[in-house]
Amino acid sequence: MQHNSVGPSSSTRKTTVTNSPHTAGSIHLHHRSSNGFNTSRTPLNRHMEMDLGKMFSAMEKGHKVCKIAVLKKWDPAYKQLTLDRYSRQIFLTKLEQSAVRNKPTILDIRQIREVQTLYYKLNTIKVDDKWKKDREIANFESKSILVISYGMAFALSNWILLFETEDACKLWSNGLHNLMMDTRDRDSSPHPLRIERFLHKHFLSLMSPANDAVARKHMKPFVQTSLQFKVQSDQLQQVTEDQMDFDQFSYASRQLIHVPELFSSRFGDLAEKHDRKGLVVTFQNFLRFLDGKQFDDMASNRTRALEFLNRYFHEDQAYLGDRNEPSMTVLEFCDFLFSRENSLWDPTNEKVTHDMSRPLSHYWIASSHNTQVSKKIH
């Protein structure tokens, strides 16, 4: 057996834990979570953000793992576990060298429900019924085994990963838990960044491993199923290339779903010509839009409106001009119209007041049908 391609077998003794210099000493998070390690949902200071950045960078570089199974046979070959931060996905790729790269197994972080070490399961929450029956897993150090539970059904599926070191396992436990909680928080990411993640995720799923590009023939199914947009072949021909990198794929996707008449018929007076970007909506015209179209009192507060736009455009987004005078392209403006940030819903109403002292007529009562469980109607 070669060490770089084959992992531990049933005859392996307990693995030893060594200190890993690239993972130790760089995770400084707050309160404890269900995975037994420290995590944080409080605002991060610059030092903590830097530590999280180092942690995610190490996850993007990847670690060698074995994917194991409980009370079943499993492949002892090592695989590479990596993170794609932009699409919020993790990849499990075979390490076998071949002329054509293997397509990885992908898990979307949005589907992850729990991230726990086997040590935490056995010693803290005392879930040990099936684990202790598996003598093969008992040979390994429980602090080096990570259990990732995922799925949308009541019974969750699992990725059970054996790491080479305890430190690497701890790194992934902390990192995935932070990403899982951040992904669940709908206020954590602005609308443009969510669009980028969506497109990046689908680009990776359609991409050919041979050339890191998406072929034109894969665009029509993507547009019709994922974007829910009926497109003609000649229209597709105009905006796509035979082989597209991510920038070309992103541009084509946006062009196909963009409806120019939506802007020109209602907001054409807001557009101004820009040397490089064509028609844009300047910050001054955005204030006019807030005042004349939206009747939003934010239009009278320039500082507040500027902070709002700077939050909306993530720091990775390119600005037309400086941060004191941000402008939007027509496509970006139309995206904003349908964004969560432009919703009619007042977020102050999301706060639930636990006060039952008022008459029942003051409350909105949402009831669920439980007859499927009880099979009785009371």
TrEMBL record:
Gene from which the chain derives: Cnig_chr_II.g4252
GO biological process: phosphatidylinositol metabolic process; phosphatidylinositol-mediated signaling; positive regulation of epithelial cell migration; release of sequestered calcium ion into cytosol
Protein name per the record: Phosphoinositide phospholipase C
Matching InterPro entries: EF-hand-dom_pair, EF-hand_PLCG1, PI-PLC_fam, PLC-like_Pdiesterase_TIM-brl, PLCG_EF-hand_2
Pfam families per UniProt: EF_HAND_1_PLCG, EF_HAND_2_PLCG
GO cellular component, one term: ruffle membrane
Gene3D superfamilies, alphabetized: 2.30.29.240, Phosphatidylinositol (PI) phosphodiesterase
Span list, region Disordered: 1-44
Organism: Caenorhabditis nigoni
Gene Ontology MF terms in the entry: phosphatidylinositol-4,5-bisphosphate phospholipase C activity
Biased composition (Polar residues): 1-23, 34-43
Domain PLCG1 EF-hand residues, every copy: 188-256
Domain PLCG EF-hand: 278-347
